[in-house]
Amino acid sequence: MTLNDLVTRVRSYTRDTTGTLFELSDIENFINEGIDKLRQIKSLETMATLTNDEQSVDLLPPQYHYCLAVYSASRCFSQDEQHYLAQTFAEEFNGLYDLIELGIKEGTIVIADDGGNPINNDISMDGVTNVYFKEI
């Protein structure tokens, strides 16, 4: 999804179809704040912020792009003191965050760079170490 698509999705979630309730700059800042949250996951730490309308989300698999709109909607509702809706959207984002993090750790979600090379840094490969016998 592009930044423009995400803004449209946020406006849909917040029922701000006329664009009069929430400032565009606030929505875009909240989307980038969501990206900052996702950067806490090691494989996504190089994810770029969105600065122009046609820029797309990178690294994050397409089926999870909308989670940035969910996060932004949560922050918009919080700003508007609609705490129940803010909490509902925040819980949905946290659930998606946990699914993404778990999927990366389990290897079911593969994060790839622009060249298609996997960059899953969260997968830990624990090897068995022989601590009882020395090899001769």
Secondary-structure blueprint:
Layout: H1 3-13, H2 24-38, H3 67-79, H4 83-106
Distinctive features:
136 residues; mainly alpha; 0% strand
What is the structure about, briefly put?
The chain has 136 residues and is mainly α. It has helices at residues 3-13, 24-38, 67-79, 83-106.
Describe this structure in words.
The chain has 136 residues and is mainly alpha-helical. 46% of the residues lie in helices and 0% in strands. It contains four helices and no strands. It has helices at 3-13, 24-38, 67-79, 83-106. α2 (24-38) packs across α3 (67-79).
Radius of gyration equals 19 Å
| Class per helix and strand makeup | mainly alpha
By DSSP, the count of extended strands is: 0
Strand residue percentage: under 5%
End-to-end Cα distance: 58 Å
Overall mean confidence score, pLDDT: 89
The backbone outline, from C-alpha atoms, is elongated
Low-confidence stretches: none
List SSEs in N-to-C order: HHHH
What's the helix count?
4
The largest sheet, given as strand count, sense and whether it forms a barrel, is: none
Helicity level: 40-55%
